Amino acid sequence: MTLQSKEIKPFIGSQVLNSKEELLSGKYATEIRELLEQRGVLVFPEINFTDEEQVAFTKTLGKFAPELLNAGEEVHKITLDTKHSASAEYLKGSMYWHIDGTMNKVPILASILSGKVLSPEGGQTEFCNTYAAYEQLSDKEKAEYDGLTVMHSAWNSLFFYEPEPSVQKLQAMMAIGDAELPLVWAHQSGRKSLVLGCTAYQVVDKPAKESALILNKLRDWATQEQFTYSHEWTVGDTVMWDNTGTMHRARPYDPACGRMMHRTKLEGEEPIVAAAS
Predict the structure, then answer these.
(1) Residue 104: which residues within 8 A CB-CB, separation 6 or more?
(2) pLDDT at 237
(3) FRET pair for 65, CA 20 to 30 Å: which of 122, 138, 206, 241?
(4) CA 7, 233, 153, 12: dihedral to nearest 10 degrees?
(5) Mean pLDDT calculated for residue range 144-160
(6) Domain ranges of the chain
(7) What would the CATH number be for the domain defined by 5-266?
């Protein structure tokens, strides 16, 4: 037996069709990781992992990453319902294109998300392949972007969902800090990807207008239809994405609907390194 997969779109996404028992055995871990890097997003339709099985599956693929906000928590319950999540307010930023961990020295390698309770409307999770988006740029554009660096912050994402925040809330978000990151990530594999998202707020050494145009132009490019995949959830689905080579976002849904996702993560293995200009 080999890893059984089926492409979803030419530039992004594959379904993995092996049984739960085969996946939990770990014998396909290397192939799964290779496929993830190639395809950006892997869908395990209606695999119906329990929390314990999801943790075990995650650990077959690399170093398990515990949650930072809730020490000792292995499975993070993601919901906008404030009765069930202390981080519901912060999660509002997940409605906009982003990469997890732009404020960390080494971003997480991958996230694994399972659908437990779905929203009646909306709530899809969308992904874009930032490897493919970079690779399809012209040589001239690659040369232009390879040497640029961009300031990122959690506080910038606040303005996407709350354009007029209080000073107190803005100060609290600013306390998380800022990070200067290359616009193009040169990976250890030799491939390159774009580092974008709602945390990006200023291209270093560029005037404000030019900076905004660069960031918005590249976001529009990376999130066009050919590079994106929107997952329509069924209860029991598990979706895994390469956080180092994709952006993602949740589509809007009613915060009171009870939508609940369970997430595990893999520790990052490489820092964001600039491409040679």
Answers:
(1) 268
(2) 98
(3) 122
(4) 10
(5) 94
(6) 5-266
(7) 3.60.130.10
